[in-house]
Amino acid sequence: MNLDSKIPSGDLSEKWSNHKGSIKLVNPANKRKHTVLVVGSGLAGASAAASLAELGYNVKCFCIQDSPRRAHSIAAQGGINSTKNYPNDGDSVYRLFYDTIKGGDFRSREANVYRLAELSSNIIDQCAAQGVPFAREYSGELANRSFGGAQVSRTFYARGQTGQQLLLGAYQALMRMVDAGKVEMYSRREMLDLVMIDGKARGIICRNLTTGAMERYAGDSVLLATGGYGRVFFLSTNAFNSNCTASWRAHKRGALFANPCFTQIHPTCIPVSGDHQSKLTLMSESLRNDGRVWVPKRKEDASKPPSQISEDARDYFLERKYPSFGNLVPRDVASRNNKEVCDEGRGVGTSGYAVYLDFKDAIQRDGLQTIKEKYGNLFEIYDKITNENPYQTPMRIYPAIHYTMGGLWVDYNLMSNIPGLHVLGEANFSDHGANRLGASALMQGLCDGYFVIPYTLGHYIASTPLPAVDTQHPAFADAENSVRSEIQKLLTVGKTGKKTVLEFYRELGHLMWDHVGMARNEKGLKTVIQKVQGLREEFWNEVLIPGEATEFNKNLEMAGRVADFLELGELMAADALNRSESCGGHFREESQTPEGEALRDDENFCYVAAWGYTGQNKPETLNKEDLHFESIKLSQRSYK
Amino acid sequence: MPKLKLNLEIWRQKNPEAQGSFEPYQLSDIDDDISFLEMLDLLNEQLIKSGKAPVEFDSDCREGICGSCGVIINGQAHGPLQATTTCQLYMRHFGDGDTIIIEPWRSKAFPVIRDLVVDRSAFDRIIAAGGYVSTKTGPHPDANSHLIPKPVADQAMDNATCIGCGACVAACPNASASLFTAAKISHLGLLPQGNPERSKRVFRMVQKMDLEGFGNCTNIGECRAACPKEISIDTIAQMRRDYVQALKE
Amino acid sequence: MSYPQVKSFTTVFKKLLIALSGLGLVGFVVVHLLGNLTLLRSDGAAFNAYAAKLESFGPLLAVAEIGLLAIFLIHIVTVLTTKKRNLDARPVAYRQWRSKGGDTPSNLSSRNMAVSGSLILLFLGIHIWQFRFGPGMSQGYIATQGQEQIRDLYRLVVETLKNPVMFLFYSVVMILLGLHLRHGIWSALQSLGMTRSRTTTPLRLLGAILGVLLGVGFLIIPAWIYFGASI
Question: Hey, are the CB atoms on B193 and A131 less than 8 Å from each other?
Answer without folding.
Answer: yes
